[in-house]
Every structure is written in structure tokens, then in C-alpha cells.
Specification:
The protein is built from 14 helices and 14 strands. The chain is α/β, with parallel strands linked by helices and about 400 residues long. The mean pLDDT is about 95. This is 8-amino-7-oxononanoate synthase.
Length: about 400
Amino acid sequence: MRNLPNNLKVKLESRVQNNALRQLPLGNNLIDFSSNDYLDFSKSESIFNATHQYLVDNNCIQNGATGSRLLSGNHNLYDVTENFIAQFHQSESALIFNSGYDANVGFFSAVPQRNDVILYDELSHASIRDGISMSNAKSYKFKHNDFEDLERLILKSKPLTINHQPSTIYIVTESVFSMDGDCPNIEELVAVSEKYGCYLVFDEAHALGVFGTNGKGLVQQFGLQDKVFARIMTFGKGLGCHGAAVLGSQELKQYLVNFARSFIYTTGLSPHSVATILVAYQHLEIENNDIHLLRENIIHFNQQKNLLGLKPIFVRSKSAIHSAIIPGNEKVKWIAKQIQEKGFDVKPILSPTVPEGQERLRFCLHAFNSKEEISNVLQLLGELVFKS
């Protein structure tokens, strides 16, 4: 086996020197404040059993998709599930991708064209940025949730007609940001989009199962689904399974089937994976108790952090994600280690994942966390922050 090239070794060593080397964690029995399993669907026995029964009832005894969806992998479950998702989200269509990363890369690399402009929030997820980098469109980032800066860029990028083809401006953001847990003013953003005739795209990965009636997401909470060009729904968070879907018009679905390379050139999901998505959505539609418990815990977390004097170090959030800014990789790793040793699984987020000086502890809340657990972990955080 040949050794790693020297230039790659240097990059690894730089991570070690900056206390930023990533390593795969081992499983643990700590109290979960780190996973994205907001509603505990990933461990739901009823979803597990219902998925199995659905496959048995439909005589679906198959372990794999056998090929890409354009060849042999488009089993009947896809149609049933995509139709259910479209109806649930009040969308003309839904197209399932293998992951949220695949959906974003496929969408942003295929939809915006050479003469188009993409304006994206500076804190957009890496999958969005990677997709944009693969596009032929021009792209510019606007300051986080700053719509005055967005308007400035829109006016600067005013659409032109080139070779008789009008250019299009796409505005891209997230309804819940994965590192900060905050949300944009969706109504204001829609107003800006309509004012200038832009195409608005929302990544709702961390809003599904958390916001809106039956956890339908933040866009539907405000009834603005008809004002949005596309929504990306990811299933690895609130739904506790795997995959993602792009929601939009029937024409958009047809376009992605023809031009999204991360859809075209990959083996489809197995029938079991697609059935799990369907059953998880069915569970979301009829089961509100988990969402209610999660929302109660979010309120309790915010109340407790305020009572303990911790509000100044936290990014403002009403979602399931709460980030305490603790600058410095070494310091935030040390505090995380102390908290973990007391039985709480809280993860540090280090630079370069976040900008230097914005290192943080990221608390993910769940329906299954008790209020006592939330109070105890915040009490411990306060002791460590004020001591150090």
C-alpha cells in the first residue's frame, strides 16, 4: 500500500496543529443532545414494524434497487411515496434523491444556467455551496439574513437578455440554519423575491418535523408554498430515516430527471428505504404528540438559558438547534469534554467547519429529552463557562 502523498500529509498535519482534526466518533450511551433525530423517529418501533408490514403486504421482497431510477431502479414504491409527499407539502410534485447532499448538488448544478445569477445566504450549507460551485451560473453571497444586502445584489445583478435568452436570478437560503438554528424572515424574503421577479429556493432540512402543522415546515407554516420555486426536504433529521426530495412544479421534476446528474447516475434507494420514508411521513401526518413534546422542550431550553444568564453566548433560535458561541477550538473542545464526562452528548463545532472565532457547542433538542436533562446540562454549561 503506497503512503499518502506529502502535500496531503501537510494538510492533515495542519489540522492536527490547529486542534481541528476530524475523527469518526464511537457510539456512546450518553444523553443525546447532538443528533438530528428531533422526533425520535429513527428509533420508533411502530415505524419500523409498519415499514416491514407494508413491504410484506405489498409482496415486496427485494433488498436493493438494482440500478438507477432511469434504468431498473424505479420500483412502484417511488410513485406512491412521491405522490404522498407532494400532497403532504401541497406541491405539484416531489422527486426523491438519495440524500440531502445529492438533492442540493443535483439541483444547483443543473437548474441555474450560464447567463443566470445565484444569490445565496453566506451561511448556506456546504451541499448548497458545492452544487453552486458546479453550476455555470454566476453566484454571489449575501450577508446572513440581511435582505438589504440581498436587494443591493439583485439590483447589481439586474437580469439581462443575452442571445435572446433572459437571465434568471435565484435566491437561495435555508428555513433553519444548521449551525446557528436561526430562521430568516420568510414573509419579507418572499416579498423581495416577488418585487424583483426572482426564483426563491428554500432548504427545509431542519424545519421538517419541527415547524408548521404536522411538522410540514416553515414555508407552509406561513402558507407561502405557492410563492416558492423549489423546496428541498431532507429525511435524515425530523423523519429519522434517509433520503431527500425536491418539491416544485411538474416541469421542474421532469427537468431534474433529465439533467440532475446526482439523480441520473446513481443507484436508487432500496424499496425498504423508500417504504420507511412513506411510513415516517404517514406517522407525521397523524401523530402530533412528538412535535408537541419537542416544541415544549425548545421553550423550556430558552427559558432556562435566560434564567441562568447564558442568553448572551447563544445564537437566538426557536428551532431544535441551539448554539453557544465559545471561541477557540481548544477551549470549546475542553468544555465539551467536561460535559460529556458528566453524561451528556454535546458536540463541539470547530473551525474550519465554522469561521475562526465562531466555534461553538451545538445543542440539538429532541422530543425524548426530559426537562430535567435540559436544565441539568445548561446548569453544567453555566458552571464551566463562568469558571473558565
